[in-house]
Specification:
Number of helices: 24
Number of strands: 13
Distance between the termini: 47 Å
Largest sheet: 3 strands, antiparallel
Strand order of the largest sheet: 12-11-13
Shape: globular
Helix content: 40-55%
Structural class: mainly alpha
Strand content: 5-15%
Length: 614
């Protein structure tokens, strides 16, 4: 029994060095007795499932590398530091190289994700052989959980790297080195896996395991099927058929596989989403309450009335989500007495706040133009620097941030709002406009709390398939800004560069108060602010031209500073704006396979998309 646990915990992912390969092959394989003992016992098998989750929290895995960078940059989110020589900026700015020191690691996200895949493969094989899932519903749940986690891992691998090795059986001496495989092969497999898993998984809140957001449930699996179907049938940079792993530059196109067409995948995806919605086992929450709870360790409840379907399963002392993305704090106010600078590495692009309707409650929760300075006082950082207000150290009430590198916050992988918006998008594509409008309305009404008539009027005015599609493009930006999904929506819609170019044009117009921003919102030179509890209220961005009554601090020339300094290294200067990308995002929408992995693959893995010559 000890042998099988040691094997699962220590097994390398995609073996990265000759020495580690030899060590792996010298390891004594678990005996039939050990495997049969483990996988015929629910508690022991559940522990092997937890070993998959362990890989998410490894130092350079999801925790400190993948989640920090994979979603940047887009038309609504960007890295808050522009410095072309900074390797962190290069990741976000589409100038990432295979030798990037942040990601060219033998224990980086690529390796750790394949470590998790290997652990999932072992669990799946063991449960199928010894767990009798066909007659044991508890073991069937664990099989469904392992299949779903493996599908999630491959979804994340393909959205980062495009085509990657396809490993759906455990490593042996015969398959230790493999080449990259067409992502279409992977999509077909994980979609089939999810169809099997969905049969085994209960809905949220119906069992002890599915009452937690760090465990898999049926609605999450149904939503993941839809998310993968949307990506698999959408646009992306792809090598020519048969040319994966040959250095092919690729072109942006749809898959040519007949099994991955919208006509094949969308009806099944919509059926799953309809079932999920009809189950009533999740729902939309008040928007501010949702994000206040998201920063707390006790926000792990799944079920009726709860929105979060699945979170990255970090332990309570692991993860760097708020550490990376929360409203910036430079003093000791939210650091357990220690003066540290944390949060604010990325934020909304400066135009994002102005795209929201003034009655949309998501605006001031999502887009924040203030921070806490080294003296623990509120500070306006300049119009070029915005933060994601969904993530705040001051909202970490059950697990106050103490200044370390980890905060314990478990970022949401999927929310019920995404179930509704995916259903709206797919229903619209299948010609069900009225159904699509009903799903969109639910999300819109929650956003316009207290102004629901505005939401109803807006949705009622959508009268065509194209208008609905455009509304969904906008709504996904408003709903998910700061959740790092936008880049991948734009890729599958073939809008990545187009929308980023539009964002560049809009930022310049905002800076110069021209174009769409000529006279819009009455932007002048002064703003006013005051501390209101644990946040700062700013007055002057909404068309106000006179000073408010009461105790407000004045910030003179706040907007004009952008115009006055447009040629300097402050404000919205040209190089900063144009640095939304520094290389063609269409050609560099995927990360390269990094040198360490390629070297240790014994020549089996080669980059495409032009990275092979770098």
């Amino acid at each position: 029994m000890k042998k099988i646990f040691a094997y699962i915990i220590a097994v390398p992912a995609l073996i990265l060095a000759v020495s580690s390969c030899e060590k792996f092959l010298d390891t004594e394989s678990p005996s039939t007795f050990d495997a049969s003992t483990v996988y015929s016992n629910y508690s022991l098998t559940e522990s092997t499932i937890f070993s998959i989750s362990q890989s998410f929290g490894e130092t350079n895995s999801y925790r400190g590398r993948y989640l920090s960078w994979i979603g940047l940059n887009s038309d609504i989110e960007w890295y808050n530091t522009f410095k072309p020589t900074d390797e962190k900026y290069q990741i976000a700015g589409y100038t990432l190289l295979p030798n990037n020191a942040q990601l060219n690691l033998d224990n980086g996200p690529f390796a750790k994700m394949y470590e998790a895949v290997e652990r999932a493969n072992l669990c799946i094989e063991g449960i199928r052989q010894y767990g009798h899932p066909e007659s044991n519903t508890d073991m069937a749940y664990l099989l469904g959980e392992a299949l779903t986690l493996r599908a999630l891992l491959y979804y994340d691998l393909t959205r980062a790297w495009g085509d990657v090795p396809a490993r759906f059986s455990s490593i042996t001496s015969d398959n230790i080195y493999v080449k990259k495989e067409s992502r279409d092969v992977i999509y077909i497999q994980i979609l089939a896996d999810l169809q099997e898993a969905i049969q085994y998984l209960p809905y949220p809140g119906t069992t002890a395991a599915t009452s937690r957001t760090d465990r898999v449930n049926k609605m999450f699996a149904q939503g993941l099927y839809a998310r993968i179907a949307l990506m698999a049938s959408g646009y992306a940079l792809r090598p020519d058929d048969g040319m994966v792993g040959t250095g092919d530059l690729g072109t942006i196109r749809l898959s040519s596989d007949e099994n991955l067409q919208k006509s094949v995948l969308y009806p099944t995806a919509l059926a799953y989403l309809r079932e999920a919605i009809a189950s009533g086992t999740a729902g939309l929450e008040d928007y501010e309450t949702l994000w206040r709870n998201q920063s707390n360790l006790n926000n792990l409840t799944a079920g009726s009335g709860h929105e979060t379907l699945f979170v990255i399963p970090f332990s309570n002392g692991r993860g760097r989500w708020n550490y990376t993305f929360a409203v910036r704090s430079e003093g000791s106010r939210y650091a357990g007495g220690s003066a540290v600078t944390r949060g604010g590495d990325a934020g909304p692009v400066p135009t994002m706040w102005f795209k929201y309707d003034k009655n949309d409650v998501r605006r001031d929760i999502t887009c924040v133009n203030w921070r806490w300075n080294a003296d623990n006082e509120p500070e306006l950082p300049g119009f070029q620097r915005w933060y994601f207000g969904k993530y705040r150290f001051e909202w970490m009430t059950s697990n106050p941030y103490t200044g370390g590198n980890d905060d314990g916050v478990k970022p949401a992988v999927m929310r019920y709002a995404d179930i509704l918006l995916m259903a709206a998008e797919i229903a619209n594509e299948l010609g069900e406009l009225d159904e699509a409008k009903g799903y969109l309305l639910q999300v819109r009404e929650r956003a316009f709390k207290g102004h629901e008539d505005d939401a109803e009027t807006y949705v009622a005015g959508i009268t065509s398939k194209d208008a609905m599609f455009n509304a969904i493009v906008d709504e996904r930006a408003f709903e998910f800004c700061g959740e790092m999904t936008r880049k991948f929506d734009l890729i599958r819609w073939n809008m990545l560069k187009t929308k980023m170019d539009q964002a560049i044009t809009e930022m310049k117009a905002l800076r110069d108060l021209t174009g769409a921003f000529t006279g819009v919102n009455g932007l002048g030179g002064d703003v006013y602010y005051q501390v209101n509890g644990d946040q700062i209220v700013i007055y002057g961005f909404n068309g106000e031209t006179t000073a408010p009554s009461g105790a407000w601090e004045k910030k003179s020339g706040y907007i004009n500073k952008i115009v006055d300094n447009k040629g300097a290294d402050t404000g919205l200067y040209d190089a900063l704006i144009e640095g939304l990308y520094s290389a063609d995002p269409n050609q560099h929408m995927f990360w390269p396979i990094f040198n360490t992995t390629m070297i240790n693959s014994q020549g089996n893995i080669q980059n495409d998309y032009g990275y092979d010559s770098l």
